[in-house]
């Protein structure tokens, strides 16, 4: 697969899907849903110029520190963390770039994810301000908050329907602007959900991304995923998210086991290292 990708016999999209599959990711499990990168950082211009490197996100950095301002806080958190019991290793992020709630967050407007989201929120929609209501606002929140480290799901590159509230769900209104949450607000350069998907997919297959995608792959699937390289890259997540970090079969206490399983399912899982 790597050779095919290098020879450009398969697209960046196909390569990412295949890597996800090999690393145990699947559409059948929200806790291990395929993970895709944020690839752009320009969600405000009237036109999107894919020949300009400045419109792309830095793929060599985890999403939590793409904004340089967050790097210091993330570093300090890691250096100052100490578990008195010695069970929990140091980590940069207590949340994860891919988890079940994040998948439902993005896909809230389409079933069965709407129902799953409502079940997760004890029978109602989460408050409007926390909903996925705008692509530019979601990116801004990532830049402002080092604790929000959500990457994307594959649907951002082929499924315009998830950006529209075709079922007319009542998702509430935003507190400050009183704006009703309906269809997802798109970047200015996208004239419709279909146009957004078309341009976003074009961005994924652009020269810039083709030349830098391996840097992100190293972080998610490769050698910067764990160990000293991960520490240096500010890319260490909560210990429970890693494959082999916890031996559930060794836990005799049923309560403890259930709690840990719940944690692993809700907090996200790092893909198998390839």
TrEMBL record:
Q: Which PROSITE patterns match?
A: BEACH
* GO biological process terms on file: intracellular protein localization
> What are the alphabetically sorted keywords of the record?
Repeat, WD repeat
Q: Which Gene Ontology molecular-function terms are recorded?
A: protein kinase binding
- SMART domains in alphabetical order: Beach (SM01026)
Q: Does the keyword Zinc apply?
A: no
Matching entries from InterPro entries are given as: BEACH_dom (IPR000409), BEACH_dom_sf (IPR036372), BEACH_Domain (IPR050865)
GO cellular component, alphabetical, reads: cytosol; membrane
Q: Which residues form the BEACH domain?
A: 1-274
Q: Does the keyword Repeat apply?
A: yes
The UniProt entry, under CDD domains, shows: Beach
Q: Locate the coiled-coil region(s) and give their ranges.
A: none
- Pfam families to which the protein is assigned, alphabetical: Beach
| Identification of the protein by name | Neurobeachin-like 1
Q: Which species?
A: Cathartes aura (Turkey vulture)
